[in-house]
Automatic annotation (TrEMBL):
<dbReference type="Pfam" id="PF02567">
    <property type="entry name" value="PhzC-PhzF"/>
</dbReference>
<feature type="active site">
    <location>
        <position position="51"/>
    </location>
</feature>
<dbReference type="InterPro" id="IPR003719">
    <property type="entry name" value="Phenazine_PhzF-like"/>
</dbReference>
<dbReference type="GO" id="GO:0005737">
    <property type="term" value="C:cytoplasm"/>
</dbReference>
<protein>
    <submittedName>
        <fullName>Uncharacterized protein</fullName>
    </submittedName>
</protein>
<keyword id="KW-0413">Isomerase</keyword>
<comment type="similarity">
    <text>Belongs to the PhzF family.</text>
</comment>
<dbReference type="GO" id="GO:0016853">
    <property type="term" value="F:isomerase activity"/>
</dbReference>
Amino acid sequence: MAPLSYRTVDAFTLTPFKGNPCAVIVFDPSDSRKDDDSFLLHLAQEFNYSESAFLVPLPPSPHPSIPDDTPTFSLRWFTPTCEFPLCGHGTLASAHTVFASHCPSAELLRFETMSGTLTARRLEGGKIELEFPDDTLEVTKTVSEEKEQRLREAIKSASPEFEGKLLGWAKGKLGWIIELSAELELEKVKIDTPFGGYVVFTQPAPLKAKEDIRSRVLDPVEEIPEDPVTGSAHCMLAPYWLGRSGPRSRLPQQLGVDERDGLRARQVSSRGGDLDVVWIRKAGRVKLRGDAVTVMTGRLLL
């Protein structure tokens, strides 16, 4: 078998070693290794990032809202333990790779994924705009009094610094959103995660900050429990912050992107990263805009 070329991309940043790293491989359509799930999982384990992305060019096919001549790829994401259904930074890293090395003149890309058709558009200034489905199925549902008490106890046990800082919560398809007050220095908090699943801690940004919201995303069942920058989490955060009168009233008065339905977001993990988020509420879609930078290229001798 011929060696495989790969690229490591830091997504949602322009600064190397910041943002969220992702390994990207674009297979030739004739390469049988593209269909070997065990092989793909071993590659993801070897890279050992939160996700690795694997693409294969596809022939053009009709789509009701995408031009027929749009370059199209299948796209799959693997963690070191399993295939993952949706990955924002992995999609951004994939688009950055394809625009840079495979389709340098394209303005729009189409990806066929486990979560349906996704698009990536090249914007002026170098940012890439992704379009994802929003996560609103359960985001406005309340919880029982008993479950609320358990949730409060779990939040308190996650960090003593959360005591008295809880402002709200919601349940999305991916997991929990936990809203905390702006006075908390979220980036400095040591968090244990007794939730047993995916949780997004979020807060309004301070008034003088460049961003509107901040967040941290943890999933203790993963090999890498805190994700550096998480595009898919913002598909929950956009409806949470922009779709309710309560949380929205706690945001800075002047929102940063597209006025009513846009947010500037910063994920305050140890690496940190930034993205613009636009909620197209009538269509049930979220646009994620961000930068990416290549930090490594190489060949796998397999």
